């Protein structure tokens, strides 16, 4: 995703019941590919969601770098939460 030409998805959208996750995925992908535009990842709202999910920024970066589809990101998030006993 290139946030210099397109905006991230709306923050009210959900993925797997997680509000903000689609937007955070867009911002993270753009940030790690070097084209975040004027958007910041992780912003305070991203950090709040990561804490709610029981993940840190580095874990989420690894997920984003290894998963190309939103469904894969969600599965990885849920898998890591399950391993931590957070489900």
Describe the structure.
The chain has one domain (14-83). The chain is globular. Helices cover 53% and strands 5% of the residues. The longest helix has 14 residues, at 70-83. By secondary structure, it is mainly alpha-helical. Strands 1-2 form a two-stranded antiparallel ribbon. The mean pLDDT is 96. Strand 1 (14-15) and strand 2 form a beta hairpin. The N and C termini lie far apart (30 Å).
Strand content: under 5%
Helix content: 40-55%
Query: What is the ordering of alpha helices and beta strands?
Result: EEHHHH
The strand line-up of the biggest sheet is 1-2
Beta strand count: 2
Largest sheet: 2 strands, antiparallel
Structural class: mainly alpha
User: What shape does the CA trace take?
Assistant: globular
Q: Point out poorly predicted stretches.
A: none
Number of helices: 4
Please compute the radius of gyration using only Cα atoms: 12 Å
Spatial separation of the terminal alpha carbons:
30 Å
Number of domains: 1
What is the residue-mean pLDDT, rounded to a whole number? 96
């Amino acid at each position: 995703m290139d946030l210099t030409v397109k905006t991230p998805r709306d923050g009210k959208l959900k993925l797997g019941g997680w509000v903000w996750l689609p937007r955070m995925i867009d911002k993270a992908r753009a940030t790690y590919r070097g084209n975040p535009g004027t958007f910041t990842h992780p912003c305070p709202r991203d950090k709040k969601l990561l804490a709610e999910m029981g993940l840190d920024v580095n874990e989420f970066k690894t997920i984003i770098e290894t998963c190309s589809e939103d469904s894969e990101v969600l599965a990885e998030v849920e898998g890591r939460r399950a391993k931590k006993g957070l489900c």
